[in-house]
DNA sequence: GCTAGGCTTCCGCTCAGCGGAAGCAGTGCT
DNA sequence: AGCACTGCTTCCGCTGAGCGGAAGCCTAGC
């Protein structure tokens, strides 16, 4: 039951490490990479990259497009979907998210905290033309998003401290002053929901509430659900209510 | 602009090939595998598997659970989501699928044909307790599912011929008689929708319609949308209408 | 205690992998 | 046209990373 407990070389000079480095060279902002970019981002010599990538293409893990650029292949898509990334949470939450979406027509998100980022597990995009940067699998800063603020407000002290120390700016409205954000986070805990106003993307506002194990009350905060809309003027109360209903439903279903 | 045109060894004895074999050992029915299972399914010696898998775990591509079993890791989930698997189609279709779901409360599917299978690109699960086997990334037979029948009815002749030659049985209601299925497929083309009655799963019926490039009319069939419900008695007409509206909307949006 | 099955470690051989260097397009500038 | 430049591809001889049989280890079951 112990298992694979080799001290092993931690160095990154094995083929496996290199392959993983190549795969990790892709991210949301780099879905298409040329050979040289790939080599650069994985920190490998070009000929080596060429050979490895060739094999990955042959195996269907990558695909080479007509113009020579490489993209992630369907084979990896298949395998990736099998990862038990909060499968339970996502399955349980899906219908509740759909309810919120149906009732509000907003873009609805389910996110958890992954280190110092909000990891988006699911998204239902609204029809309204609100600019939304997140997709499933995105990781966005905690202090610029609705779900992020909720998750941050309920994160352990050291996470919060670290986050407050590095408040990067995304738009002119991003809150970069630690004290001001800290005040907001206290309010988030007290009032039970968070909002953002064009802090991540111009033209997009959001509301989010925590999902607590067992529903309302003092259960651990395991996730957050949020909605993105063009403006909060009209709908804040309505959205908060809808999200809270969904969050309670999700939390209650999780225990069972 | 040519590129990676090496004849190369097609044999499967490189580290890359082995790694891919290990990853492909996972599928929907085998999300958790022990070392020995992994070795068996990838056709590799156990010690070799042990070493490679150890490195994959170290790189976060796999995760070893407390009981020793391996599952796909979050790192691969991340990368897999970046695959351009019909990204355009999925994004365009999402809001329309949500509409159908909201209107019918049924489980709604978007699928394309991938060889001799229906590949499920998206799913909105209904609240009703209908047994549904498909998840995003599933591949199911073409002749046992609603979306599959639609895709098969509009597939090239040779695909249809091959499919009719191997009608595997999933339930007592599965249609395994070629002539009978062929008649049904003709009707699907004529009437514009397909149905199944407990042919894939007992207790589940489905309706599906084609998505044509440009909407209604003679555009190529590029996908199918379908709904799963406990029974067709009450809702058939309503479902067909809802699905057709969505399919037209998707098809029209695809061209723009 | 004994057996069986599966996991882990060892270790010496060898061949797959390596990557510098050179060749080969395309492209843009003069 | 000529030239410079950038990025992709191929070559090839050296070498150490990978290999996997064998042995050891641990747990579970009898």
From TrEMBL, chains A, B:
Ranked from the top, the taxonomy reads: Bacteria, Bacillati, Actinomycetota, Actinomycetes, Propionibacteriales
The record ties this protein, via InterPro entries, to: GAF-like_dom_sf, HTH_MetabolicPath_Reg, Tscrpt_reg_IclR_C, Tscrpt_reg_IclR_N, WH-like_DNA-bd_sf, WH_DNA-bd_sf
Keyword Transcription regulation in the entry? The reply is: yes
**Stored PROSITE patterns:** HTH_ICLR, ICLR_ED
Q: Does the keyword Translocase apply?
A: no
Q: What is this protein called?
A: IclR family transcriptional regulator
**Residue span, HTH iclR-type domain:** 13-74
SUPFAM superfamilies per UniProt: GAF domain-like (SSF55781), Winged helix' DNA-binding domain (SSF46785)
Q: Which UniProt keywords apply?
A: DNA-binding, Transcription, Transcription regulation
Enumerate the spans annotated as IclR-ED domain. Answer: 75-256
Entry's Pfam families?
HTH_IclR, IclR_C
